[in-house]
Amino acid sequence: MSLLASVTLDSRTEGGTGQGIASWFEAALAGPLAGFLELERRDAATSLATSQMREGEKYREFSLASGEWDSMRQELMRCPEVAAAIVTLADSERPAVHVSSSSILVRQPNVEVQLLLSGDDAARVDDVVFCISIVDFLISALNSANPAFGRVCVGEPMQQKTNLDAVLRKKIWRSVAEARNFLRGYAWVTVCPEELTEELGGADFLERTGAFHRVVPLASGGTVLQATETISGYSDEAMRRTFENLAPVLPPGLPRFDPANPEVRFVPEDAGQFERGPR
After folding, report:
1. DSSP bridge pairs for 9
2. Which helix (H) or strand (E) holds 27?
3. Is the pTM of this model over 0.70?
4. What is the β-pairing status of strands 97-102 and 149-154?
């Protein structure tokens, strides 16, 4: 099982996409990555951090455990085409945590930043403290960004493709291009951009619906919506509540099961049947 936090940054991201990428990695370094890098200092793990400005150019490598974050941050501010930090435990061949950014599929100037946890941490789906830490990481990473979209899900083997991209058969680049007009998807945690938050009635209205366990407005715009206290609590009923409250800003179309992504969770209804507010 794996836990994926994935966020879309675009040309309207506050401070620019480079600042957004740096904030994502910095929040990961202070949160989910911190314990793993401490393990590396004790020779219980290994890490690799890299960036590549343009496809075909040479990768730059950084040692985060040795304190090279400032150098990597300067590189991230330049908005590289891809960047990553991967930590692998000494007794495993599979990375325990993978922090990344990429514009390959979403197309520049857009960027998708991600945090992928696997192993014991990803299995803590009923741990309240762990779930709070994931949402707090997201808030810290995005508070100054006004992202175009974001989500946290478990067990879905997709990366830049969202649940609705899969079941509506949407190209990733098109989904990203429309992200501030149509919400790209929904999950245990959904990050709604400022424009669509306002169309839904604002963060205060969304909190009053009672559909979400936690509603957090971001300082630079947008809202983090946590459906249930824990990931394991995100039942089909909770997913339906999330869908119904976000449906007015979801893309229209009847979703269809995607055999290539059988674990994707979705409500099999056309969001276009829900009335959309004035634009």
Report:
1. 111
2. helix 17-30
3. yes
4. unpaired
> What are the tokens at 13?
């991201």
Q: What confidence score (pLDDT) does residue 153 get?
A: 95
Strand partners, 151: 6, 190
- Is the alpha carbon torsion for 32, 99, 142, 172 positive or negative? negative
Running along the chain, 279 residues long, what does each successive block of 10 average in pLDDT? 93 95 97 91 94 93 94 97 96 91 95 91 87 97 96 83 96 96 98 97 96 97 97 97 97 94 94 71
Q: Residue 14 half-sphere exposure, CB side, CA atoms within 13 Å?
A: 15
Sorted by sequence, the CB contacts under 8 Å of residue 226 that are 6+ apart come out as 135, 188, 189, 212, 213, 214, 215, 216
Is residue 2 a contact partner of residue 154, using CB atoms and an 8 Å limit? yes
**Cβ-Cβ contacts under 8 Å for 9 (sequence gap 6 or more):** 17, 20, 21, 110, 111, 112, 113, 145, 147, 148
Both tokens of 84, joined, read: 């990553």
Give the three-state DSSP class for 44.
coil
Q: Which two tokens stand for residue 184?
A: 């790209």
Cis peptide bond N-terminal to 278, omega within 30 = no
Instruction: Write the DSSP string, 111-171.
Output: EEEEEEEETTTTT-TT-HHHHHHHHHHHHHHHTTT--SEEEEEES---SSS-HHHHHTT--
